[in-house]
Amino acid sequence: MTTTLPSAAPNLERKLDELTAQVAFLAEEARLTRQRRERWEELQHDMVPIATEALTVVSRELEDLEVDVTELTGLLKRLVKAAPLLERALIQLEMYAELAQEAAPIAGDAMESAISTLAALDERGYFTFARGAVSVADRVVTGFTEDDIEQLGDNVVLILNTVKDLTQPEIMAALHRMITAVQEQQRRLIEEPAQAPSLYQIIRQLRDPEIRRGIARGLNTLRAVSEAETGFGREPNKINLSGGK
Questions:
Q1: Distance, C-alpha 127 to centroid of its chain
Q2: Contact 159, 148 (CB under 8 A)
Q3: CA distances (Å), 217 to each of 1, 161, 174, 214, in order?
Q4: Residue 140: which residues within 8 A CB-CB, separation 6 or more?
Q5: Which of 37, 72, 73, 216 would you call most buried, defined as having the most Cβ atoms within 10 angstroms of its Cβ?
Q6: What pLDDT, on a 0 to 100 scale, did the predictor assign at position 1?
Q7: What pTM was estimated for this model as a whole?
């Protein structure tokens, strides 16, 4: 007996060490499990009121959004029947989208061209002229009364005929010669002496054929105007411009 005890002591100590280690492991696992259970209980304690409130809100919203099953079924049937029409509409939208994508560069070029044209017109003064024309039109509108407009409407045909006659080549040529003569006369007024010409000097100018022709034309014009105003139809007794009697 005394020889077997010393040999069995190391085995016993080893087993005790293993048992101690296993007990410590189990104790640690029990501690970790207890911590996880406590955390879960705390989470449940915190989440239960929140979940309850969320369920209450969802239930209330669903009650507000309650839909009749019959109406929902009818809506689904209409959607199924309209599926081909919706498909064609989507195809057309795709075509329009492709067309818009292809036309975008053309539209950009057109916009740039339009901007360049407007800039050129602005540089040439078209917009300034338009603003001035608007101002002139405003003055014309505010300067005429309703009676003036009515009289203008009554005489518009006569005015147009007069303008038409004035645009004839011979009339324009005569007006041009008259304006040229007036300008020349204005230039000569500056060179004329301060003393007025005598009656004898004026009579002497009548010897000039051009002076006599001018006076004759003036008298014939006055006679024609008088005939037009009085309405006489007879041929006016014109003054002979050839110099004969």
A1: 16
A2: no
A3: 178, 24, 12, 5
A4: none
A5: 216
A6: 43
A7: 0.29
